[in-house]
Amino acid sequence: MLCMQLFDPKVHTFSTYVIGLVYEIISREAASNWNGEGSFLFTSSSAPYDCNNNGSCDEDCPVVPIGRSPRTDVLLKAEKVVLDSGADRGAHVYWLGKGIVDARPDHILNLIHYEDAASLSVAILKKKLRGRIFLGCDNQPLSRQEVMDLVEKSGKFTKKFGSFTGTNGPLGKKLNNSKTREEIGWEPKYPSFSQFLGVSE
């Protein structure tokens, strides 16, 4: 029934909108996990190029303007997300941008660098295990305040953080993945947030 309904122009337009929104969200999520080092490779389609007469087309051809076609809008918006993505990501960058954050400073966070998350995932997949649960973290839990204190100490950011003003809400938990490390035979490239920032502990 759903496949039949997709032939209805109104439903098809709505479906294209939903698919486009999901595609843009996925692109944004992928870009948010890039720290700006190396390259971010985004593969797409030639559809955005404004050429549909079997003519020649290269990298310098103009693109279809936003709004002309829902199909190309999907791709153009996703590409814009990637092109606009910055180098610095993470909760600490968000908090720096906010300045004053209504959250508890003593809430514990468990961190892991995206490269370490990726390498751990690959290591687990190589074991070909089934029905297991593993933890990914750096075994160095920090409070929100400790995170921002390290950011300040690093001297790598021009913005200055204000403060956490929250007093209510749940506290976090301190994860330890020593069992995962031993079984999988994995160690993180970045053993702690402070080492990632280049701050002596």
Structure description:
The structure is a single chain. This protein is mainly α and 201 residues long. The chain folds into two domains: 2-84, no CATH class; 91-197, NAD(P)-binding Rossmann-like Domain (Rossmann fold, 3-Layer(aba) Sandwich), CATH 3.40.50. Helices cover 44% and strands 4% of the residues. The chain is built from eight helices and four strands. The strands form two sheets. The chain has a two-stranded parallel sheet with strand order 1-4. A two-stranded antiparallel ribbon has the order 2-3. The N and C termini lie far apart (61 Å). Belongs to the NAD(P)-dependent epimerase/dehydratase family. One of its GO terms (molecular function) is isomerase activity. It comes from Ilex paraguariensis. Keywords: Isomerase, NAD.
Set out the fold topology.
Elements: H1 2-5, H2 9-32, H3 70-84, H4 91-98, E1 100-101, E2 108-109, H5 114-127, E3 142-143, H6 144-154, E4 163-164, H7 178-184, H8 193-197
Parallel strand pairs: 1-4
Antiparallel strand pairs: 2-3
Helix pairs in contact: 2-3
What descriptive keywords fit this protein?
single chain; 201 residues; mainly alpha; Rossmann fold; 2 domains; two-stranded parallel ribbon; two-stranded antiparallel sheet; 8 helices; extended; disordered N terminus; NAD(P)-bd_dom_sf; NAD; NAD(P)-binding Rossmann-fold superfamily protein; isomerase; isomerase activity
